[in-house]
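To: structure desk
From: M.T.
Subject: fold request, one chain
Message: Could you run this one when you get a chance? Sequence is below, nothing fancy, just the single chain.
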Amino acid sequence: LEFRRVLFRSKAAEFHFVRYGLFVTYFPHLIAGPVLHHHEMMPQFARPESYRFQWENFAVGFTIFFIGLAKKVLLADSIGEYARPVFDAPGKGIALSAVDAWGGALAYTFQLYFDFSGYSDTAIGLSRMVGVKLPLNFASPYKATSIVDFWRCWHMTLSRFLRDYLYIPLGGNRSGAARRYVNLM
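Reply: Done. Structure tokens follow.
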């Protein structure tokens, strides 16, 4: 059904069934992203050079994969050891000070970032090792200077997907401020 819907909206210029099957089952991105668009993946699957091993792609991909793995294992899991007791405390009847509660909340935000960013980097790295280029998913959101800038840098492919497949089809901001806010919700 999704295959027909994509073709019906003329979002897909190429509709080879086997390559489409590869697109919807492409394993590196399925768990945590990045969220992929049909038009950015299908041309890569159609090019014969995408199926040839290249040492440069492997080296770049391995580096990105290793950085993502380090984010997940070394940073996210370590920070989680600080966040977990804070979130377990109320269930155990332990009262927290404001400093402890804020520290746990802050630790959790960094754990969440390094988990998602690490998973995305491992998917991007694995893909690059086999010659497929996936889009960047996080662009240092904690360096942002505003909430809007933060959101633009956080899980960028999910934001793009929501914009292209929900916000714009619902009318975006074309029908006035009230409708725009309804579409945003």
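Reply (cont.): The chain is about 65% helix and 0% strand. Let me know if you need anything else for the meeting.
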